[in-house]
Amino acid sequence: MQHVEMESMTEQAYRCWLQYETILNKQEEAHYWSYVQTISLQKETLIGQAIKRELNLAVESMFGKTSTWQEDAQLVLTTVADKARLRKHGINQEEIAELNEEGYIIKEKDNQLIVVGASEKGLLYGVFHLLRLISQKQSLTDLTIQDAPQNQIRMLNQWDNIDGSIERGYSGQSIFYSNGTVTTDEKRLTDYARLLASVGINAISINNVNVWKEETHLISERYLTDVQRLEEIFQSYGVTVYLSINFASPIELGHLDTADPLDAGVQQWWKEKVAEIYSYMPRFGGFVVKADSEHRPGPFTYERDHADGANLLADALSPYNGMVIWRCFVYNCMQDWRDRKTDRARAAYDHFVPLDGRFRDNVVLQIKNGPMDFQVREPVSPLFGALQQTNQLLEFQITQEYLGQQKDLCYLVPMWKEVLQFDTKVQGEGSTVQSIVNGSLYQAKISGIAAVANSGDEQSWTGHTLAQANLFGYGRLTWNADLTAEEILHEWIVLTFGHEEKLKRVLSEMLLASWSIYENYTTPLGIGWMVNPNHHYGVNVDGYEYSRWGTYHFADREGLGVDRTRESGTAFVDQYAKENADRFNALDQCPDDLLLFFHHVPYTHRLKNGKTVIQHYYDSHFEGVTDVEWLISEWQSLKSLIDPYRYKNVAERLQLQLSNAREWRDQVNTYFLRKSGIPDADGRKMYE
Ligand code: GCU
């Protein structure tokens, strides 16, 4: 197929939520055009140019004509710095003073619209907000909006490798690298930066946390000129660039014989290295570090701890206001847990809580949402709440490693909301995770949220077109954690697919049900870890890759689940504040959806819904498959409302999901029937 033809077919998938659909209704067209026909913008900085490009593109696409840029205009774009203009438009300083530096005001009066950013970045976000309002067909008359992000850092972690592959990537190859070089496809990167900025993402690390041999060189002369090119693109959309580094760089790049953080030569090496990086990129964000985990080097080699390791880098970065993002995903993957006391879930807390207060103030610890590893359901990591004198970032995973790999449908915002709303209780009621990551609970200097990206070079960016909702939702939720999963979804549907009522209803039902459907046919009740080893797609009941010591579900003839109680188990529960610890520890109080995470129970244990655990397992696996069949028929009912490319893209994936769900159902149910010897109460056939 001709390139151009293919492009026009896939264009809607490519544009994601920035469709800027032509406004056909005459009245609506007249209303919006009256505001955008003339626009004024003071500064022509990098961000200013991005704002101008975006508005030109959007106006052209929505109205088929171009705005005139002039001093006196219907749409006035400015920042707080321009006091005279604010006075002229009756905006008082107090309104702005309430906003943080990324905030903005949008105000309409007498058919004139003004967008005021607390900074240029704020203005960029304000413009995207305005474009969202127009795309959603909201009236601009008498509008007053005052908005600012709740979380300071709203970051994406790309797990892209320089050979063009992406660790846990399910949407093609990297848009950053190919075959050992940094990409020259600046159009694609610019479009990515636009997508990110449009939902408020303001930071990105551009290489895999596992920094292999070649990636180690990204901070060397060989690559810095190219990295700087990428950095400029993202900077012009207000996105600060970070690099993941190899802790052993002084050895691998500097040819020193040690990377010991307390060694003066190593400290000097990092100082010089950081100075070199900033000579290329004065606004560089800093380093992301995975150390002493899954065979990556770290301070443990030198019998130093993680505060020593992080502070080494922090000292080198601090003259430039750079930051160290140090990951807490530290555990010994070779550990022997047969004593039933050793527990991977305990690792992050055990390593980091004793170090609380010892990190420099430009270090921020990045903590995965759960204590294990992005399973379909996990409790919140107990580090939240336990760390009180340390900057923290929460880490989510947008890429669906354990959640169907963008073949299976799984809208993740409801899960993320549960995490943010979890009350750690450490400072009494209301000590939610959100209050920790927005910096308010402990007055943290740096805080926020990061997530592993789900994008790649496929035309739809995310492989499964509906997985775009997760990238969009991540940005919107980290901007404003008070938005509901439904609100975010409704915005996304309209911006992505348009205004058709049926489409809105059906799509939102499908997506809102999708997480629990996936959970039902995979690992309900919090057990996790029944996937195929290494690649992590599809069922393998005993498949945990570090399983030479047994499996993680501890299923035997009598029952299943991991005993993490204080009396007979690993005592992991006691890493939580007392109220939560007691609740998780007590069999009758532990929520059912986490039951098997905390307790080993007999198959005949009754859940709160009155069913036995084994019957619940059978039922949910049967239901999961029926629900996927329902997803398919719902999607089919939308055929006439969706362009052929996106329709087919999703239809094909739903078929893959159905085979996956059937396989899970058959293998899980048969496995537990054999183990337990307890038949299904409804006498259904266990495999086809
Ligand atoms: C998971 C994932 C790895 C990744 C690791 C991490 O274990 O499977 O691919 O490197 O998380 O977060 O560092």
Strand segment count: 18
Ligands and ions found: alpha-D-glucopyranuronic acid
The end-to-end span amounts to: 40 Å
Which CATH C-level class of the largest domain is it? Answer: Alpha Beta
Please indicate the count of domains: 3
**3D shape:** globular
Main β-sheet: number of strands, strand sense, barrel status? Answer: 8 strands, parallel, barrel
What are the segments in which pLDDT stays under 50 over at least 5 consecutive residues? none
Helix content: 25-40%
Q: With helices defined by DSSP (H or I, 4 residues minimum), what is the helix count?
A: 23
Within CATH, the superfamily of the largest domain carries the name: Glycosidases
Q: Approximately what portion of the residues adopt beta-strand conformation?
A: 5-15%
Spatial extent as radius of gyration: 26 Å
Mean pLDDT: 95
CATH topology of the largest domain, what is it called? Answer: TIM Barrel
Biggest sheet: strand arrangement: 7-10-11-12-13-14-15-16
